[in-house]
Amino acid sequence: MLSRLLKEHQAKQNERKELQERRRREAIAAATCLTEALVDHLNVGVAQAYVNQRKLDHEVKTLQVQAGQFAKQTAQWINMVENFNQALKEIGDVENWARSIEMDMRTIATALEYVHKGPVQPAST
């Protein structure tokens, strides 16, 4: 009787140990699956962040190049406008010079006419 009770007790203990071991393995398997799922989810986010960072780096480089080109083009435009402005000033100077020469030529022409015709005689009455 004692022997049978001992055997029953040992059998129940073995069943509990097996059940506990099976549950422990299931828990480990579930924890492993959960960990892998979390890591996979995290890796997807990290991978996406890495891809986004590479895209941003590329865009920054492109923007820097374009900004440099725009600065050069702007400097060229400014130089062209300054040259144009200088040319307009020179045209204004030439125009003033031409007016001055024209006035001098008229004065000379009037003097030559006067010399050519002689002094104007007063009309006799």
TrEMBL record:
<dbReference type="GO" id="GO:0031083">
    <property type="term" value="C:BLOC-1 complex"/>
</dbReference>
<keyword id="KW-0175">Coiled coil</keyword>
<comment type="similarity">
    <text>Belongs to the BLOC1S1 family.</text>
</comment>
<protein>
    <recommendedName>
        <fullName>Biogenesis of lysosome-related organelles complex 1 subunit 1</fullName>
    </recommendedName>
</protein>
<dbReference type="InterPro" id="IPR009395">
    <property type="entry name" value="BLOC1S1"/>
</dbReference>
<dbReference type="GO" id="GO:0048753">
    <property type="term" value="P:pigment granule organization"/>
</dbReference>
<feature type="coiled-coil region">
    <location>
        <begin position="2"/>
        <end position="29"/>
    </location>
</feature>
<dbReference type="GO" id="GO:0048794">
    <property type="term" value="P:swim bladder development"/>
</dbReference>
<dbReference type="GO" id="GO:0016197">
    <property type="term" value="P:endosomal transport"/>
</dbReference>
<dbReference type="Pfam" id="PF06320">
    <property type="entry name" value="GCN5L1"/>
</dbReference>
<dbReference type="GO" id="GO:0043129">
    <property type="term" value="P:surfactant homeostasis"/>
</dbReference>
